[in-house]
Amino acid sequence: MNAVIESQTSAPYRRAVVASKRARWEIETDVLRGRSLEQEHKYLPDGLSLAHTLDFLSERERRFMSQVQGRSYANIFGLVERFINAKVLELSRHHLFGDQVALEALVRFSDEELKHQELFRRIEQLAARGMPEGYRFLPDPNDVAHVVLERSTWSVLALTCHIELFTLAHYKRSIEPDATLSPLFKDVLMFHWKEESQHAVLDELEWRREDKTLSPAERTQAVGDLLSLVSAVDGILQLQAAADASYFADNLERRLSDAESASVKVTFLRAYRYQYIGSGIEQTRFPEILFGLVGDVESARIQAALEPLL
Ligand SMILES: [Fe+2]
Ligand SMILES: [Fe+2]
Question: What radius of gyration do the chain's Cα atoms show?
């Protein structure tokens, strides 16, 4: 008997494999090329950092704010890629003796996420070289992965699809058009975007495949898992936003007033919630996919839970 090498569902996986081969890049020779992170440029655009909303900060202080947030942006990607890769490896088992094209697509996905984690570790080292001491990235990628992976596959795939879709939106809508960003930081996010484009397609395919296996009761349970994951993400954002706001304020050449400090703190959290939660809801097709899968009652439940975070 012939094993299933390709099936009718292979076509989108095959397109992802072809696109992944075309996009393929190496950290040192394509992305870093011996460069350092430029101190004279912003790392994240205003639309993501919200630094432009603090009118009591000087140009230079706003730039520093975008660099602190850019450093955490790289670290947060490194962190989520730990659980994403673990889930992708687990999903690839479904295809081990079936669709070999789907298997290849997921193996490449996993390989790319391992490479991205290494890239973001390199960025953390380069950022550390140019910034004052005292920055700390608080959440531990393995601790977070253990918490996330306890939840249902459907909910982890939903969260992953959301992350990969907003990654694309950030790059296309606000990073690519901004000519004032650090050329190296911008290149890192451009190369990352190239490979994430395939990941977002694969997340959706796998998520829909998983969705077909659930009963209505299991799906309701899975929505609950997703809401728990979103609240865990928000916990991480609150922790890191507070740490980053203090690091930022402690390293200015002047002392901020109490009101200014409070405003900085609120803006860091608002920016992080927008980067990792709100932008995916507002700027991508994620809600369309999600609400299409869960129906009206669960959609209303999700919207109510998200409202305080948006
Ligand atoms: Fe990635
Ligand atoms: Fe990815």
Answer: 20
User: Which ligand is the nearest neighbour of the Cα of 77?
Assistant: 1
Structure-token pair, residue 230 = 């979103």
Which numbered ligand comes closest to the C-alpha of 163? 2
Show the low-confidence residues of the chain (pLDDT under 70).
Answer: 1-8
Instruction: State pLDDT tens for residues 120-168.
Output: 999 999 999 999 999 999 999 999 999 999 999 999 999 999 999 999 9
CB contact at 8 A, 271 and 50: yes
Ligand whose nearest atom lies closest to the CA of 76: 1
Ligand 2 centroid to residue 50 C-alpha, Å: 25
**DSSP string over 164-228:** HHHHHHIIIIIITT-TTB-HHHHHHHHHHHHHHHHHHHHHHHHHHHHHHT--HHHHHHHHHHHHH
How far is the centre of ligand 2, averaged over its atoms, from the C-alpha of 280 (Å)? 14
pLDDT score of 169: 97
Tokens of 6: 């390709």
Q: How far is the CA of 180 from the centre of ligand 1 (A)?
A: 24
- Residue pair 274/234 in contact by the 8 Å Cβ criterion: no
How much distance in Å is there from the Cα of 212 to the middle of ligand 1?
Answer: 26
CA pair distance 266, 258, nearest whole angstrom? 12
